[in-house]
Protein: Beta-galactosidase
Organism: Streptomyces argenteolus
Amino acid sequence: MTDFGVEDDHFLLDGRPVRLLSGALHYFRVHEAQWGHRLSMLRAMGLNCVETYVPWNLHEPRPGEFRDVGALGRFLDAVGRAGLWAIVRPGPYICAEWENGGLPAWVTGRFGRRVRTRDAGYGAAVGRWFGELLPQVVGRQVTAGGPVVMVQVENEYGSYGSDRVHLEELADLVRRCGVTVPLFTSDGPEDHMLTGGSVPGLPATANFGSGAREAFGVLRRHRPRDPLMCMEFWCGWFEHWGGEQVVRDPAATAAELREILECGASVNVYMAHGGTNFAGWSGANRSGPLQDGRLMPTVTSYDYGAPVDEYGRATEKFWLFREVLAAYREGPLPELPPEPVGLPGPVRVELTRGTSPAAVLEALGDPETEESGVPPTFEDLGVDRGLVRYRVDVPGPRQAYPLSVTGLRDRALVYVDGVRAGVLTEEEHTLEVPVAGPAEVELWVESLGRVNYGPRLGEPKGVTGGVLHERQFLHGVRARALRLDAFDVPGAVDRVEFGDAVEAGPVGLFRGSFEVADAADTGHAGLELPGWTRGFVWVNGFCLGRYWSVGRRRPLYVPGPVLREGANEVWVLELEEAGELFVELGPGLPAG
């Protein structure tokens, strides 16, 4: 029986010191059919371990409704077959630039600021979730012949709070669920983070992108006998829609990796392969030192400037990291697997059929609510990703007054008496043209991603304040939700009544088809939408994620296994202004 433990500032495998050379690869950001290839790439780079978070909201979107929790187990089995160890970080909060930091919207909606504390109700919800999840880990620990060597308790808790009782309760819960491998915490290398986020008796690790000696010096002050480990070596960074791309020089980043290893430490490269935020699961951040400013939603690509890019290819950073890591591995490193082949192109896909948002809502939406005194939030309606149509009447007769929305999160397309009147945002929340009464107002509101980090974690979405006409609140609001996962139901889109795309108008759902001759040999494609504004795209029912015309444009990543030999179908849900009625498929971005 294999044993993994911690003793005298070393990790031990069967009593012998071992160094973990790990890389982050999130199973939920990579198509399952591509796990094996990506894991082989990590091993060829010189890693002996892989790390993954687990997003609670992906697997329990509504209370007691568990979806494919076994995906984690299947991934860990793939890790074992690849000859790697595994570190599992189940949260329950994970950050990860993921919607709501991995917490289900129903959890933050129910418990509010009591999440991530010792609150009994929150603890009970976590207990039920871990009771469902952790059997996937327990049977795959190294002591049972599996790959799992360590499990994290919470995540960067010192960046959020100081409730040690909560952390100790979580650690006890993980143990009661049967996890026997070492538990650990991870935090930034700062005194307040390490004191707020660590647990007595559990190894503490540090997260940073540079300055290893200084970072480990801080860690040593707090934990003089723990093994040194950088649990997140940030070799790149993520992007926000409309924000600047952060690029890390490959040579300088490789030098930082070498410094970590020269300190005698273990490392987890974050990210080794980033993947993609499919299906609108991207999170968001807030600007400002207290994260209380402008909302900054995260883009669909999670390439992260990783050594293995979004398309599964080796970058310059990969080869430099491989050279550094080779000095810390015995024997020659494995050869790389074959590089994925892109779809020949470009292939122009004409979108010939289309329909209005109202028709989509009628076919796939939830029932409309009764009139209410205040608009229900997304949380009130049980919506995580998607949009909500709010309807409210302006009484009359009355003169034209400014119409505004307080507490709008995040973006609304507004109609007055069926005529488009403008787009409102959190910052620009008043229509340019005043509205006279009587009139009917429609607000089509979309969440652009919930905050995943900082004190604004769990803030609600939708109309969280009210609709104002001059200074008067308009009451009697009706709301109807269109959940993004309604499109996942087989045959659901076939219930939508389509007509000619040209006659459908500038917003709505559009569809078209194309042929693929050699789908089995295609590793990936890139999909572009010239002139389109904002919405979501599906290929053969698989949601590629959100597109948006702001900032740097890049194709949406299409996993090769999504494509089919022969006929394939594309759906585009445009929420503001459609471009010409076609999309383009091709090999995607060149290797970088």
User: Anything to note?
Assistant: The CA atoms of residues 19 and 266 lie 5 Å apart. The longest helix spans residues 120-133. The mean pLDDT is 97. The chain has three domains: 4-326, 347-355+504-586, 358-483.
